[in-house]
Amino acid sequence: MHAPAIVLRAAGEPDQLRLEDVEVAEPGPGEVQIRHTAIGVNFHDVYVRSGLYHTLPLPGIPGIEAAGVVTATGPGTTQFRPGDRVAYMTRQYGCYAAARIIDEDLLIPLPDAVSDELAATHLLKGLTAYALLHEVYAVKPRDRVLVHAAAGGVGALLCQWAAAKGACVIGTAGSQKKAGFALQHGCSHAILYREEDFVRRVDEITAGQGVQVAYDSVGKDTFFGSLACLAPTGHLANFGQSSGAVPPFEVSQLFKKSNSLSRMSVFVQLRDVGHRRDVARQLLAAFGDGTLSPSPVQRFSLADAAQAHRAMESRERMGSLLLVP
Prior knowledge:
Blueprint: E1 2-8, E2 17-23, E3 31-41, H1 43-50, E4 65-73, E5 85-89, E6 99-103, E7 108-109, H2 116-136, E8 144-147, H3 153-164, E9 168-173, H4 176-184, E10 189-192, H5 198-205, E11 211-216, H6 223-229, E12 230-238, E13 260-263, H7 266-269, H8 273-288, E14 297-301, H9 305-313, E15 320-324
Parallel strand pairs: 8-9, 8-11, 9-10, 11-12, 12-13, 14-15
Antiparallel strand pairs: 1-2, 3-4, 3-6, 3-15, 4-5, 5-7
Helix pairs in contact: 2-3, 2-8, 5-6
């Protein structure tokens, strides 16, 4: 069969994302065929399209997160049947398509109460937030936590979940609107990083004690400031580089306060199938019981993937972006 997909043939501007008709094979052993109903758009996709990441062989179909319905199963497939609703994240790419073949071990079953939209826009972000908060650094009651881009997709989930765990959350944001959003989603304090020195403000807020953990997805522009904000034995969890890659630095800079540093890959952190599905169940339960609130969703047709990328790169954007085949 054939289905429409977004094909990237050369890295560059959003216009490189072009709709083409591609062949979808029959599923092989251990594989299923999926009809996508909702496709998440992430900063990772932007990095791949721009050429910052060289992880997708070109020409290729980008996208690492989607939800849909199983339409066919291959020989030996035991975990899913046609008609099952599923979601997934993958380093194999290929999500910007109306249909695809995928290994059944990558799939997460969706309960009736969870919409395809929620799963496609919050699975990757939510699993990332869980791993950062519970495994990379296990946030405890009364911890002081710094979250950059607190109104962003992962940032807002980090703030809500850390606050629910009893932490004092300090968030940075780029506008009054985003600061207000952060304060409504778990932050005790919001710092306007364009107007204030966030290192000085964190020092004031914590009375010079610093934070136990800083979650930094911004990278180059904030990394060393985040390091300066840490308390003794504090941890810096870098998980993105929206402002650019962090330059090389001397590891001895961690020595003064006995700090630690991590650069997590959620795909490696949750590489075990059973563990990943268990974490996904906890994530979806957190949305169900109100611990987490989903961000607003902005929808684009699959053919308008370039427009979605422009929106993703806009500093005024808030909420999640979704492609609908």
